[in-house]
Amino acid sequence: MNKLILLCLALTLGLSSCVSKKQYDELQMTMQERLDANQQKMSQHNKEINRYAERLADCERREAAVTTRVKVAESQVQQANDQIVDLKKQREQQMTQVGDLTVLSQGANENIGNTLKQLEGKDKYIRLLQNAKSKADSINLALAVNLKQVLRDGIDDADVDIKVDKTVVYINLSDKMLYKSGSYQITDRAGEILQKIATIAKSRPNLELMVEGYTDNVSINTNCINDNWDLSVLRSTSVVKALQNTYGIDPNRLIAAGRGEYNALADNATAEGRSTNRRTRIILLPKLNEFYDLLDPTKIPE
């Protein structure tokens, strides 16, 4: 730019001595117009350069943002791959655990596991245990189904609860159905349920019946009853005597037991909880000699 101005000045000085004043002024005006035009073009070029520079900076920012997103996506993909690996491991562990599950309790599982280790190689006895368990499960399931069918007619479901656990069947009966309040005397309504239980028991002479009495934690002390231990035992013996004397169950098959206020099912702090805990439980279980017969190696089905 400076060189152009100097050149113009030189030409102007050189020509000023050779041309007239008018021609000189015209020439000077022309040169100024050209100079102004060039300056405008240069200004436009500078603006365009600035615009391109801004676009370049914007592109660089976008490129940096894309690069960041790509890195984040790659990290997420890696995390997803890690999760897939972990999920596969968890699935394999779960499949292993499912294969090891049984209907036995944890303590029974440990005992069976130790027994199986000791009996390793004795396939014949292992088959015996499996057959015995399957037979016991089948017997208990059939017994529970029959009991529910027989007991449900005319009986409030809230007063009777039937469960199967391992080798025994439990029948929980509410105290309000069996006894008068605070007493161990059997009610007339109790006869209906005891008659049905006796009918089932007679059809299965290989079962023993254990009657357990339970109370809440409210203390009792009368002329005949000292405490909840006494009340629970007296209630269980009342049921046992009724099964024997009224409904003809062989007393050799009957067991009476009292559990007092202990082994509670619910919190005694509420009336509902105390009502739940006041119950009588009848347990149908195989006779010990017949149960052990199931484990007799000489009776393994070939």
Can you put this structure into words, describing what you see?
There is one protein chain. With 302 residues, the protein is of the alpha+beta class. The protein has 2 domains: 2-70; 123-293, OmpA-like domain (60s Ribosomal Protein L30, Chain: A, 2-Layer Sandwich), CATH 3.30.1330.60. It is built from 9 helices and 5 strands; from the N terminus they run H-H-H-H-E-E-H-H-E-H-E-H-E-H. It has helices at 2-16, 21-100, 106-118, 123-151, 175-178, 188-203, 228-246, 271-277, 288-293, and strands at 160-165, 168-174, 207-213, 254-258, 279-286. A 5-stranded mixed β-sheet has the order 1-2-5-3-4. A hairpin with a 2-residue loop joins strand 1 and strand 2. The longest helix is centred in the N-terminal third of the chain and has 80 residues, at 21-100. The radius of gyration is 50 Å and the shape is rod-shaped.
Q: Key terms for this structure?
A:
5-stranded mixed sheet; 302 residues; alpha+beta; 60s Ribosomal Protein L30, Chain: A
Which series of helices and strands comes N to C? HHHHEEHHEHEHEH
Overall body shape? rod-shaped
* Strand segment count: 5
How far apart lie the N and C ends?
115 Å
Rg measurement, Å:
50 Å
Q: What percent of the residues sit in helical stretches (DSSP H or I)? A: 55-70%
- CATH-assigned homologous superfamily of the largest domain: OmpA-like domain
- Biggest β-sheet, characterized? 5 strands, mixed
* Count of alpha/pi helices: 9
CATH architecture of the largest domain: 2-Layer Sandwich
Number of self-contained structural domains: 2
Kindly report the average pLDDT value.
76
Proportion of β residues? 5-15%
Low-pLDDT stretches are: none
